[in-house]
Design brief:
364 residues, alpha/beta, Rossmann fold, 6-stranded mixed β-sheet, elongated, Peripla_BP_I
């Protein structure tokens, strides 16, 4: 990515004010052409004027996967606000399916912009984007933009990750915390490493166990990896991938969610979540849809300082075998650090190196 971080810029009672609710809404409908070509589920555009720009969401995973769910929620929000018409197709799990689906949509639907995730299908997305230079493409990607119409974005969540790590460090009684991530790529590594630094701030004697499932969406594998951390002594988990919250609930320990506010999945166990607000990025794509295609890095729109990410409201009412609520002084420390991030007096370090499987935070 070309973004330089240093240069960029809630549900049950008794909560810290660190949240805005952000929930994904499923869109029901069918688009026969895309469904037959791609094999994914589809969504109809929201009711609205035909004069509104048509934005198409194209996703490699099911929308239950929080990463794509965050994009979908932002697009649905824009549709609900009457700014766009919105259709989507998800679960295009292979590069071939992604390429066919994108080409069919671009040829037959003639959308004003296409947005989605490209990490597992970079070549396919960029190939089709080059074939349709008049349509803006904006995709989650670890690669550079490509002229004239291929923009990229990413989830720069190091700030809320640091804050969540502070909470985890203050809540653990065993001084062992477990993280389950997708795979050791820069987009995941910087979140994990920021979380570990946050743990160090509140608990410098802690150990953080890290495992990767080598998949963006495999809840069963993520749950199994989380259970292994629990067996190794972890009493707080970070659910970078879907499936970990279920393991935390079974083990009756606190857990940090990811991408959207996941408290409702386990109200007694989810202490907070890293929230990715895609709406600023979506608004930038809408500008392209109503103007000229661009090839730009939209990463800056995911930073906390511009409203692109945040820490969900701290669930001070968690009730687990190891934590009966969240100490007030811990909440205060997190709130003070968040204020420092927002006013620029603290910049969360961005470290995209692959983390070790077991980290003594005192040595970070």
């Amino acid at each position: 990515m070309n973004v330089t971080p240093a240069s960029r810029p809630r549900r049950s009672p008794r909560r810290s004010p660190l949240r805005r609710t952000w929930a994904a809404v499923a869109v029901v409908g069918a688009l026969a052409l895309a469904a037959s070509a791609c094999g994914g589920s589809t969504g109809e555009e929201a009711d609205g004027s035909e004069d509104l720009p048509l934005i198409y969401g194209v996703y490699a995973t099911p929308l239950e996967e929080p990463w794509d769910g965050a994009i979908h929620a932002a697009l649905q929000s824009a549709a609900d606000d009457g700014e766009i018409r919105y259709k989507h197709v998800d679960d295009l799990s292979t590069s071939d399916a992604m390429e066919r689906g994108l080409r069919d949509i671009a040829s037959n639907e003639e959308p004003d912009a296409i947005i989605g995730d490209a990490f597992a299908a970079e070549e396919a997305v960029r190939k089709v984007a080059a074939e349709f230079p008049d349509i803006p493409f904006a995709f989650g990607s670890g690669e550079d933009p490509v002229e004239p119409n291929m923009s990229v974005f990413d989830n720069w969540l190091q700030d809320p990750a640091y804050l969540a790590g502070m909470l985890a460090g203050g809540l653990t009684e065993s001084d062992t915390i477990g993280i389950v991530g997708a795979m050791p790529i820069p987009e995941v590594n910087r979140i994990v490493n920021a979380f570990v630094l946050g743990v160090k701030e509140t608990n410098p004697q802690a150990t953080v166990k890290v495992s990767f499932i080598n998949s963006f969406f495999d809840p069963a594998a993520a749950k199994q990896a989380a259970q292994a951390h629990v067996s190794a002594g972890a009493d707080v988990l970070f659910a970078e991938r879907d499936g970990v919250i279920a393991a935390a609930e079974e083990a009756d320990i606190p857990v940090v969610g990811m991408m959207v506010d996941q408290e409702e999945e386990a109200p007694d166990h989810v202490v907070t979540s890293l929230i990715w607000h895609m709406r600023p990025t979506v608004d930038a794509v809408i500008e392209q849809a109503t103007g000229e295609p661009q090839a730009v890095d939209l990463g800056e729109f995911s930073f906390m300082k511009v409203g692109g990410s945040e820490l969900a409201e701290i669930n001070t009412d968690i009730a687990t075998s190891t934590a009966d609520g969240v100490p007030e002084d811990l909440v205060t420390k997190v709130e003070e650090k968040q204020a420092a991030i927002m006013d620029g007096s603290f910049t969360t370090p961005v470290d995209e190196s692959a983390p070790a499987s077991s980290i003594d935070v005192s040595k970070k």
